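Readers outside the structure-tokenisation community will struggle with the description of the input data as it stands. I therefore recommend that a typical entry be quoted early in the introduction. An entry of this sort, consisting of the sequence and the corresponding backbone structure tokens, reads as follows:
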Amino acid sequence: MRGRLMGWVALGCVLGATGCRMGESRTEPTEPAKVIGYTPTETVAVEQRETAAPQAPAQIAVATPPEQERTEQRAEPTPEPAREPTPEESRKLLEEEDRIWLSETAEAARAGNPNIAPGAATEDITIATGTVDGRVERVRKGTIEVSDGEGNIYELRIDKRSRGLRQGRQVPLRGIAEGTPVRASFDLVGAGDSLARDIVLRR
């Protein structure tokens, strides 16, 4: 018994000196994992690009010329209201419009009538003919006035082709009394005049 006890003591001493290493597990150092296709330098470059702060666009100030500033500040003038023409101006305007119309109509009549001489004055070209039934209002030197049933007065100019007729016989125009019923024919010429032709007395 004593000998077995001494054996256990001896065994304890051995274990105390060497340490109990049977239950320990040793961990071997391992190398860091390697990733195929991975380059550290590329990672650094990407990280730098991602972390770089975006740059704001440059702002350019454009100077406005002084003349342009004055033009913008200057108020536009208010247009003046249209002025009504005076009666005299209106009359002259109508006369001018009538003159233009008569001249153009006379030229059209010349172009459409081969009997009109090429050298005939525009003022003498007949552009229309007419007839009025009414009464003689007044006979003056160079003109005879005839009024129709509606109160319109026709001032007819007398020329060498004008004549008065009573029952087919020629009578002097100056001898026609005012108020005499007549049928008067006339020519409208390019000058704007109505030339008396046949003044037929109806009584």
Notes: DSSP finds four helices and seven strands in the chain.
